[in-house]
Amino acid sequence: MRIPRVSPLAYRRIALATLVALVVITVVGAGVRLTGSGLGCSTWPSCEPDSFTPRSASDGHAMIEFLNRLLNAAVGLLALAAVVGAHLREPRRSDLVRWALGVFAWVAANGLVGALVVWLHLSPVSVIGHFVLALGAVWNALVLHQRAAREPVPGERRLPTATAPFVNATRGLLVAAGAVLITGTLVTGSGPHAGDDRADRLALEVGTVARVHGLAMIGFLALTVAVVRMAHRGDATPAVVRRSHDLLVVLVAQGALGYWQYFAGVPALLVAFHVLGATLVWVAVLRLWLGLTTAVPAEAHGAAGAAGGAGTEAATALAGDAAPDAGSRPRAATT
């Protein structure tokens, strides 16, 4: 019997489904904590020592935690489907196989950390690790989806789509995003919504940590505005400009939501949306970073070089059908 093959379009859909599922399960996991169901099941992998499932369907906390475990298992199967699909894809690409295996590894590792969260009775450090690994899986799935979006051409080269100062500023955005996310987890670990009344909290004053988190967010937003201004000034291609806009929109919404939840007394529903916003900010900043290079066929790159351009100027000349003026500042390659 001939094994069915997977088309590039079908595989890209699998990669997209995996990415979306990882974002959704991150929010669902936060929902378990926000409903006080973190210890709804007292052990792992079974719900209770003598029962794999909750003893009673009327036990709301146990059912919420058990449903979360079932959804995590479904995400694991989807990650496994990405691995199998990468092997069956026609044409088969080793880079997609490697990145798909990476997604599965992140998901499997986070499953084990999820077990530690239960065994350690919602230790804040284990919960923070659980979230950080979830963001790692999202990064890996995003790279997989972007790579699956196009077919490489033999001999192609990658050229920058932004100037060196813009690339350096975007590196700063990655650092700023990391600072905001980590300080956000510290706020979570020291504030309410521990997942269970018996759970420990970090020995930090939540108001102080929240202010540090807010300052990190303001710095992140200021740097994002600067990057958007650089993009409009001509330091990046239109595609990169659009991605910088996406980041700014998501970041402004996330910042507004953060202040809203803080002054509203940190209601669980707003916290859930804030977790979703944090994940989307992470996706947006990663998309901006991943868009800073573009693949150019070898013959096109060679033709640009023969035309008298080099580096980013050559790619601009190709895209604009005209070489830049001798006195103009270097522009980024267009996609």
Order of strands in the sheet with most strands: 1-2
Share of helical residues? 55-70%
Number of domains: 2
Shape: flat
Flag low-confidence runs.
304-330
Distance linking N and C termini: 43 Å
Let me know the largest β-sheet: 2 strands, antiparallel
Tell me how many strands there are. 2
What structural class do the secondary elements suggest? mainly alpha
How would you explain this protein's 3D organization?
It is a single chain. This protein is an all-alpha fold and 335 residues long. The protein has two domains: 1-152; 154-335. It has helices at residues 8-34, 60-88, 94-119, 124-148, 164-190, 206-235, 238-263, 268-290, 298-306, 311-320, and strands at 157-160, 293-296. Helix 9 packs across helix 10. It starts with 7 loop residues before the first helix and ends in a 15-residue tail after the last helix.
Key words describing this protein structure:
mainly alpha, flat, 2 domains, 335 residues, 69% helix, single chain, two-stranded antiparallel sheet, 2% strand
Describe how the helices and strands are arranged.
Elements: H1 8-34, H2 60-88, H3 94-119, H4 124-148, E1 157-160, H5 164-190, H6 206-235, H7 238-263, H8 268-290, E2 293-296, H9 298-306, H10 311-320
Antiparallel strand pairs: 1-2
